[in-house]
C-alpha cells in the first residue's frame, strides 16, 4: 500500500471541502425541484391553471435546463468553470425571488425557465469540479456523498413543499431558495479555486437551438397525446417537427467542431451503453415522486403535506444507498454497482405496477418506493463514477454536460409520457382535476379509471427500467 504524501493529504482535504460546496448546489436544485412536484396542486388551484399550463409549470424548467446543459459546459471551458458555476447560483437565486412574486401562471413559467438556466450552470459543472478535485481512487466516495446529498434534498423537498404550501403559501417554496442561494454563492466564492481553461472552441449555437426546438415539439406532442389522442393535429405537428429536426441535429453536429450532441461519444461500447442506461434509469425514476404524490392527492384525497410524507421512502432509499455504495466503490467495480442498482430500480417499479389499487396497504407501496430509491442511489453512484473515470480530462466539461443532458432528456420525456399515460384514462374533461388533486371528491368511477392509468404508467416505466438494466450490463470496459 503506497504511503500518503503531504501533497495527497492536502489534495484530499481540499477535495472534501469542494464536495461540501458542490453539495450545497445540489441541495438547492434538489429541493427546488422536489418541493414543486408535491405542491403543484396548490399552485394550480391558486392560478386556476388549465391542464396545459399545469404541465408546463414543471416542464419549462426541465426543458430549458436540458437544452442548455452542454452549452454551459462549453461556456465553462471557455470562461472558467468556477466563474460559470458561481454565476449559476446568482441567477438561480434571483429567479427564485421573482417566481414567488409571479402575478400569473405564465410569469411563473417564465421564471421557472430562468431558474433552469442557473441550474444548468450549476449541474453542468458540479460533477466536473468534484472529479478534478478528488484523486481517482477516492472519486467514488466523493460521488457517493454528492449524490447522497441530492437525496437529502429530495428527502426534505416533498415534505417541506407540502408543509409550506399548506401553511405559509406556495410563494415561500421559491423564496426559501434566496437565503440558501446567497449562502452557497458566498461560500463557493471564498473556497473554490480557479480551474485551468480548456482550449477555445466555438459554441454550437445552431445545435442548441435545434435541440431546444426538437425537445419542445416532442413535449408538446406527448402532453397532447393523452388528452386528445394520436390523431390530434397538435400531436401530429409536434411529432412531425421532432422527426424532421433530429436529422438536422445530427447533420449540424457532424459539421460543427464542438457539437451540442457529439455522437462520437457513442462510438465506444462503454460510453454508449452507460449513457443509454442512464437515460433509461432517469426516464424510469424521475416522475416517480410526481406520479405517487398525485396518486395520494387525486386518488386518496390527502393534502399536500401528507402526500409529501408518503413519498419519503424514495429519497430515504437514495440517501442510505449512495454513501454506502460510495465506500464500496474502492472494492466493488462501478460497473457491478450500476447493474445491481438498475435491477433494484426495476424491481421497485414492478411492485408499484402490481400495487396500483386504492385498497393496497401503504407498507406495500412504501416498500416499492424504498427499493426503487435504493436502486437509484446505487445506480447513479456507480454509473457516474464509471463514466467520469472513462473520460479524458480535456473534455470533462462538455461531456459531463452531455451526460447530464442525456439524463435530463429522460426526465423530460418521463414527465410528459407518464402524465400523458396517467391522465388518458380519465379523459380531457377530468384531466385538470387530477393536476389539482381534487378528483377523489368527484366520482369513485373516475378514481377507478385513474387507477388503470397509474397501472399503465408504472408498467411503462418498469419496462424502461428493465431495458436500462440490460444496457448497464453491456457497458463493460473493453479488455486490454
Characterize this entry briefly:
It contains 18 helices and no strands. It has 480 residues and is mainly α.
Describe the protein in words.
With 480 residues, the chain is mainly alpha-helical. It folds into two domains: 12-190 and 258-474, MFS general substrate transporter like domains (Growth Hormone, Chain: A, Up-down Bundle); 204-257, no CATH class. Helix content is 80%, strand content 0%. The chain is built from 18 helices and no strands. The chain has helices spanning 6-47, 51-79, 81-100, 105-133, 139-166, 171-175, 177-191, 205-228, 233-255, 269-285, 288-299, 304-310, 313-328, 334-354, 362-389, 396-424, 428-436, 444-474. The two termini are 24 Å apart. This is EmrB/QacA subfamily drug resistance transporter.
What keywords describe this structure?
18 helices, Growth Hormone, Chain: A, 0% strand, single chain, globular, 480 residues, 2 domains, mainly alpha
Determine the strand fraction and express it as a percent band: under 5%
Query: Could you give me the name of the CATH homologous superfamily of the largest domain?
Result: MFS general substrate transporter like domains
For the terminal residues, how far apart are their CA atoms? 24 Å
What coarse outline follows from CA principal-axis ratios?
Answer: globular
CATH class of the largest domain: Mainly Alpha
> What is the number of helices?
18
Low-pLDDT stretches are none
Tell me the helix content.
Answer: over 70%
Mean pLDDT: 77
* Reported CATH architecture of the largest domain: Up-down Bundle
H/E element sequence = HHHHHHHHHHHHHHHHHH
